[in-house]
Amino acid sequence: MAEYFGILDGDDDVWGVRVPDLPGVNGGGSTPGHARQDAISAAREWAEHRIDKGYALPAPSSLGDIVRAHVQANEVIVTIPVLVDSGRPARANLSLDAALLADIDRAAAERRLTRSAFIASAVRDKIFSQA
After folding, report:
1. CATH number (domain holding residue 96)
2. Fewer CB within 10 A of the end CB, N or C, for the chain?
3. Domain CATH number, residue 73
4. Residues 62, 13 share a domain
5. Short-list 38, 31, 40, 32, CA closest to 8
């Protein structure tokens, strides 16, 4: 997983994030958190497209370089993790409480997902919310 720096700005219920290292990657939302999540989603799509075309991802700039070149007054730096699937499944043996596993299966079925897809989605959400 690579991490890039995004620049958050906004007010009230209009927020935006731009990611200088990833041209064209922006996010928006009614809260800073929603804008960041939208930028994370856009960055992942951008990275997947670039990799599909055979290009490497750019190296993330340092925090100092981003601040010096791109940050204006009243803007804040946020991290934008980019996690791209390899396209190659790997088996993992997990031990979970039986009741938790039943809840996972129920929630996965409600969303018409497999157990594996549901767990992968939940893990991505957790990684991105902590970044």
Report:
1. 1.10.1220
2. N
3. 3.30.160.250
4. yes
5. 32
Domain that holds residue 32: 1-84
Distance, in Å, from the CA atom of 47 to the CA atom of 60, rounded to the nearest integer, reads 13
Same domain, 96 and 51: no
68 and 127 fall within a common domain: no
93-126 tens-digit pLDDT: 999 999 999 999 999 999 999 999 999 989 988 8
Q: How confident is the model at residue 130 (pLDDT cuts 50, 70, 90)?
A: low
Distance in angstroms (rounded) separating the CA atoms of residues 48 and 40: 12
pTM given for the model: 0.79
- Our separate counts of H helices and E strands in the chain read 4, 4
How many structural domains does the chain have? 2
Other Cβ atoms within 10 Å of 109 Cβ, number: 12
Q: pLDDT tens, 45-86?
A: 999 999 999 999 999 999 999 999 999 999 999 999 998 888
> What is the DSSP code (8-state) at residue 24?
T
| Residues 6+ positions from 43 with CB-CB distance below 8 Å | 4, 19, 22, 25, 80, 82
